[in-house]
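User: For my dataset I need records formatted as: sequence, then structure tokens, nothing else. Please produce one.
Assistant:
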Amino acid sequence: MNTRKLSELAKTIRSKNAGVNKITFDIIFRDRDTYDAVRRSRALTRETMAALYRISQERISDFVEYDPGLAIKFTIYRLRPSGSAGDGDIFGAQQYAPLLDLPVTL
């Protein structure tokens, strides 16, 4: 078996606002074979994302494997609305970092 970082396998890893109360994450792959291999690895699931972000699974509103776009997407509820007092990332664009080093065993 071969273990690689998600950042070595994905073309794009990003996060951004999905309205004022959610942040969405996109992991997009260059080709079908890599996308399918990562899906089969089960490194990216609702459960593994809850563990990675140290949140309850209930905070994940959506988790989608989007075959036409070769993408895995998930959305989490924010603890506080975007731009409110105490919000450290108004655009939600800095939340993807934990995904970069996620080990994926192929």
